[in-house]
């Protein structure tokens, strides 16, 4: 049984992907990440896990995790500056921008 909580659990439940962030990501980060990942059909990527190096103090080359899929390394950027929202159409194109 997985004992995930917070944003890592939200990502796992929504996408089936592990997020190794050491509690660096917020709920807003997780929601944004889930939106992007759910917009890409799983058949079009081979992502096995998402890693936030800032949560561990090591770079991607130092992490040492081996998998048959792709490891996606993402930065933990502040969400406060993220003031625009956009909608994607079924082809992945942006249909509408709006300021929050």
List the helices and strands and how they pair.
Layout: H1 6-15, E1 18-20, H2 27-39, E2 47-51, E3 70-73, E4 84-88, E5 94-99
Parallel strand pairs: 1-2, 2-3
Antiparallel strand pairs: 4-5
Description:
The chain is of the alpha/beta class. It has one domain (6-76, 83-99). The protein has helices spanning 6-15, 27-39; strands at 18-20, 47-51, 70-73, 84-88, 94-99. The strands form two sheets. A three-stranded parallel sheet has the order 1-2-3. The mean pLDDT is 78.
Give a nutshell description of this structure.
This protein is an alpha/beta fold and 100 residues long. It has helices at 6-15, 27-39; strands at 18-20, 47-51, 70-73, 84-88, 94-99.
């Amino acid at each position: 049984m997985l004992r995930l909580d917070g944003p890592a659990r939200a990502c796992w439940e929504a996408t089936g992907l592990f997020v190794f962030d050491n509690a660096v990501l917020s709920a807003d980060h997780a929601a944004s990440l889930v939106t992007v990942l759910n917009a890409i059909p799983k058949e079009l990527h081979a992502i096995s896990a998402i890693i936030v190096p800032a949560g561990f103090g090591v770079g991607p080359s130092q992490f040492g995790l081996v998998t048959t899929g792709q490891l996606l390394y993402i930065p933990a950027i502040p969400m406060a500056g993220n003031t625009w929202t956009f909608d994607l159409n079924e082809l992945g194109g942006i249909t509408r921008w709006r300021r929050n």
